[in-house]
Design brief:
The chain is of the alpha/beta class. Helices cover 36% and strands 26% of the residues. The strands form 3 sheets. It has an 8-stranded mixed β-sheet, sandwiched between helices. Strands 2-12-9-8 form a 4-stranded mixed β-sheet. Strands 10-11 form a two-stranded antiparallel ribbon. The structure holds N,N,N-trimethyl-histidine. This is L-histidine N(Alpha)-methyltransferase.
Length: 325
Amino acid sequence: NQGKKVEIKYLPNISPIQDNGEDVIEGLSGSPKVLPPKYFYDRTGSLLFEKICELPEYYPTRTETTILTNFASEIASLTGICELVELGSGSSTKTRLLLSAYENMGKPWRYIPIDVSGEMLNRSSLQLAKEYSLLSILGLVGTYEQALWHLPPKELSSRMVVFLGSSLGNFTGLECDRLFTEIAEVLEEGDYFLLGVDLQKPVSILENAYNDSQGVTAEFNLNMLSHLNQRFDGNFRADLWTHKAIYNQELNQIEMYLHCDKKHQVSLKSLDLTVDFSDDDFILTEISRKFDLTEMEDFLQSHHLNTIQFWTDEKQWFGLILAQV
Ligand code: AVJ
């Protein structure tokens, strides 16, 4: 009967990671050159990201975990029993703190994790079903946007969309705007949105978090090139590129770059793409925005997502916001 408790749905017409490489062609043909952060996460990249989360300099995961450890049961008692819909559930490690709080309410309930990796979703869902006896799980394999539009009718009277880890930081202002609009549209009155955001702090702490002394972040950044080689039959040479991460104080965002050290040409055969790089060229691979809690509250409110309460850590390095439609 375990099979009854877990269902995984591959959303129709959704390739988990858009495979046609249109975005790569566009990104490398423009100026400045950019590549979308989703190309970090092949198998190697996902493992490297888990390694990043454990680095002494990379505070976000650890800090958010502390906040959840302290306040998960308070969050659960504020919302009462509800269905959790998680955007980008990954291994659901931090989510367990929330799941436990809701499981403790002693009623049958449902968790709907959404992730682009079907493999990861299958594995973690089966594991969670074993750990939480009151929980049924409906995993949706697809992108955030597509999954939000394919949500099944509610089984409980309220629902909470959960978006942790400051993954929102990868989104530009315009993309945040679109996502929040969609979330507010999909939720019904009285439903909740729980958002984890990384906050502004001294530049040195931020830059160290993205330039760790063991070079794991550099490896993670460079791995995007080997991922592209494999995916699109390319000939990027990792030894001709250097990882750089700087904090842009005007835009309040970490910017991760790959800097080209030597003039050369790269082709990605299956995309029919050839790119010339000069010796001072660079590619922007990621932005990681750092937020101001009050501004985020206002931004949420402008999308009919009204803050009920927020929580931070001692140093106010990370914030968790509970909003309601
Ligand atoms: C997964 C997007 C939240 O922006 O901090 C970690 C990814 N990049 N180190 C972040 C990341 C470099 C991470 N997010």
